[in-house]
Design brief:
- With 277 residues, the chain is of the alpha/beta class.
- Helix content is 30%, strand content 20%.
- Helix 2 crosses helix 4 (121-132).
- The chain is globular and about 55 Å long.
C-alpha cells in the first residue's frame, strides 16, 4: 500500500478562496501483488464532519481502514472550514475527484467508480458534489469538464441536507457566514431542492434518535431522489446519537454512548452497496 499526501490549492479563478490555506489529502492506494496487470479498484473519498467549523478525526482514518479492508482505495479530504465559505470546500472536493481520475492509470483506480463518503456536514459536502457537479460555478474555475468532477456514487452518513425548518443551523452559519439569513442562498444549499436525474446513486443512513441533525434530512433527500428516478438505499436505525462514525469502540473516543451495536452494520451494508454500484 502506498501512503500519499498532498495539498489542494484552488486556482486564482476561484477568487482567492484559498485564503485560509489549502485542503489536505491523505491517500491510501492499495498495491496489486498478484500476477498480471494491476486491478483497477474503486476509490472512496472521505469527507469528515464537524459542522463546517472543524473536522472530526473520528470520521477519517478509522473509516478509511474499513474501506481499505474491503479492497477500495481511500482518499481523506481535510477541506477548508469556516471562515472559508461556500463553494470553497465544494470546489476542493471537485478538484480532488478530477485529480483521482487523471491519475487513475497510475493508481489503478477505476475512473467510473469514484465514490464520495461524507459524515454530517461532510455529508452535505459530498452530497453537494452529487447535485452540483454539472454546474459551471463548480467545474468552470477549475478548468475541468463536468464529467471529470462527477462522483459515481454517494455514501451519506447522518448528512446535513436541508436548510429549512429541520436544518442544523450551525452548519449553514459556518457555510454561508453573513449570508446565512439570505433565503435565496439558503435555498441554493438546501440539497433536497437541488437533486435531479443527474444526481448519482446514493446510500444513506441515519438514526431516528438523532437530536442534532434530524433524521428528516435523509428522508427528504431520499424522497427527492425517488421523485427523479435516481437509485437510493436508505437505512434508518431506531437508536443512536449523532456523530457515531463506526459506532464502535474504535471511534467512541472513550464515550460509552458513542458505542451502538445496532448501528455498526452500516459500514457492511455500504460495502455491499458499493459492490453493486
Amino acid at each position: 500500500m502506498k501512503l500519499l499526501t498532498w495539498n489542494i490549492s484552488l486556482p486564482e479563478e476561484c477568487g482567492g478562496s484559498d485564503e485560509q490555506g489549502p485542503a489536505e489529502v491523505t491517500a491510501y492506494v492499495l498495491d496489486w501483488s498478484a500476477d498480471g496487470p494491476p486491478k483497477a479498484r474503486p476509490a472512496v473519498i472521505i469527507c469528515p464532519g464537524g459542522g463546517y467549523g472543524h473536522l472530526s478525526s473520528r470520521e477519517g482514518e478509522p473509516v478509511a481502514m474499513e474501506y481499505l479492508s474491503m479492497g477500495y482505495h481511500v482518499f481523506i479530504l481535510r477541506y477548508s472550514v469556516a471562515p472559508a465559505r461556500f463553494p470553497t470546500a465544494l470546489r476542493q472536493l471537485a478538484l480532488l475527484t478530477a485529480q483521482i481520475r487523471e491519475h487513475s492509470r497510475e493508481w489503478s483506480v477505476n475512473p467510473k467508480k469514484i465514490v464520495v463518503s461524507g459524515f454530517s456536514a461532510g455529508g452535505h459536502l459530498a452530497c453537494s458534489l452529487g447535485v452540483f457537479w454539472n454546474r459551471s460555478f463548480v467545474y468552470g474555475p477549475l478548468g475541468r469538464a463536468p464529467e471529470a468532477v462527477k462522483p459515481d456514487g454517494m455514501i451519506l452518513s447522518y448528512p446535513v441536507i436541508t436548510s429549512g425548518p429541520l436544518c442544523h443551523q450551525g452548519s449553514f452559519e459556518n457555510l454561508l457566514g453573513e449570508e446565512a439569513s439570505d433565503q435565496e442562498k439558503r435555498k441554493q444549499v438546501s440539497l433536497e431542492e437541488q437533486a435531479g436525474p443527474h444526481t448519482p446513486p446514493a446510500f444513506l443512513w441515519h438514526t431516528v434518535a438523532d437530536d442534532a441533525v434530524p433524521v428528516e434530512n435523509s428522508i427528504l433527500f431520499a424522497r427527492a431522489l425517488m421523485r427523479h428516478g435516481v437509485s437510493v438505499e436508505c437505512h434508518l436505525f431506531p437508536v443512536g446519537c449523532h456523530g457515531l462514525s463506526l459506532a464502535n469502540g474504535d471511534t467512541a473516543a472513550g464515550k460509552e454512548y458513542m458505542v451502538e451495536p445496532r448501528c455498526q452494520s452500516w459500514i457492511w451494508l455500504a460495502g455491499e452497496w458499493l459492490k453493486n454500484l
